[in-house]
Write a structure and sequence with these properties.
The chain is of the alpha/beta class. The protein has a single domain, classed as 3-Layer(aba) Sandwich (Rossmann fold). It has helices at residues 9-25, 29-35, 40-48, 67-72, 84-97, 133-142, 160-168, 188-195, 217-227, 229-237, 242-258, and strands at residues 55-58, 76-81, 101-105, 118-124, 144-155, 199-211, 268-279.
Length: 280
């Protein structure tokens, strides 16, 4: 007999997405986006050659890291994110700057747009955090017109942020069934497998963001504890265990030192993968 109290798959998915949305509303991801990773949006829009006349969709846009550069390049931009608070920030910034961007709260795994609606579909450090990678990849392809472009910028598994997630993993709650690690999107073979033969001219290159905002490893750790949703969520999960909190504090400091932030060294590099492809 079926347990009537057991949630359906749809209910479980809605609960998972609500949890994700709430996580990215913790702290101040807009500060991270504008103070640290702001250079990445223009890099991707330039990589894809976004220009006047293009209809562009920014998936998991946050508060608009790629949306604003695309709009400034002359494109007609639609921006989506799962987190209403980030959409509200982006929408208000569009008004304040008088830049026309059409904002929507939307799930990267179930985009509310018709097939083949966009000339270019982009995501900067966004779609990589949707839990079901194939579902997200299918949506990216579906809403891109034949001949249109798909552009993605993601943290790599072996780079600093990928290693930060690996460092936090022992302290975090177990992932829900079917969820995949976000930094896999920074592996070109993984992205190639997700997109498959539905795209052509797929290429990828790795580069690094030089980060010099932090004077010490402890300053980096405290900034992320205060502003970055995934880090905040892990600390909340272990908040009742001071031993684990202290251990994670030490591990994050050691990670920053290992990547070069220590003493007189104020700049360290965060590796990312840029992928571009054309819809077949």
């Amino acid at each position: 007999m079926t347990d009537l109290l057991q949630p359906t798959a749809a209910e479980a998915d809605r609960a998972l997405k609500a949890k994700h949305a709430a996580m990215w509303a913790m702290g101040d991801y807009d500060a991270v986006s504008t103070e640290i990773v702001a250079p990445l949006g223009p890099i991707l829009t330039e990589e894809l050659g976004i220009a006047t006349g293009d209809r562009v969709l920014d998936v998991a846009a946050g508060s608009g890291n790629a949306s604003f550069p695309a709009a400034r390049a002359g494109a007609s931009v639609v921006a989506t994110d799962l987190t209403p608070e980030l959409v509200a920030i982006g929408r208000q910034r569009s008004r304040d700057r008088e830049i026309a961007i059409d904002w929507h709260v939307a799930d990267a795994e179930a985009l509310p747009f018709d097939d083949a609606s966009f000339d270019a579909v982009v995501s900067v450090l966004g779609v990589m955090f949707a839990p079901h990678h194939q579902a997200s990849a299918d949506e990216l392809v579906r809403v891109t017109r034949p001949g249109g472009r798909i552009g993605l910028l993601s943290w790599t598994p072996t780079g600093f942020i990928g290693q930060m997630f690996l460092t936090m993993k022992p302290y975090a709650p177990p992932p829900p069934p079917g969820a995949q690690p976000a930094p896999l999107w920074g592996d070109l073979d993984h992205v190639r497998e997700l997109l498959g033969d539905r795209v052509s001219d797929l290429s990828g290159r790795t580069a690094a963001l030089a980060v010099s905002q932090f004077a010490t490893p402890e300053a980096f750790r405290d900034y992320f504890k205060r502003n970055y949703g995934p880090t905040i969520a892990v600390y909340r999960f272990i908040a009742d265990d001071p031993t684990k909190v202290a251990a994670l504090d030490r591990d994050l400091v050691e990670l920053a030192r290992r990547f070069g932030l220590d003493g007189d060294r104020r700049t360290f590099e965060w590796a990312y993968l840029v992928v571009s492809a054309r819809r077949s």
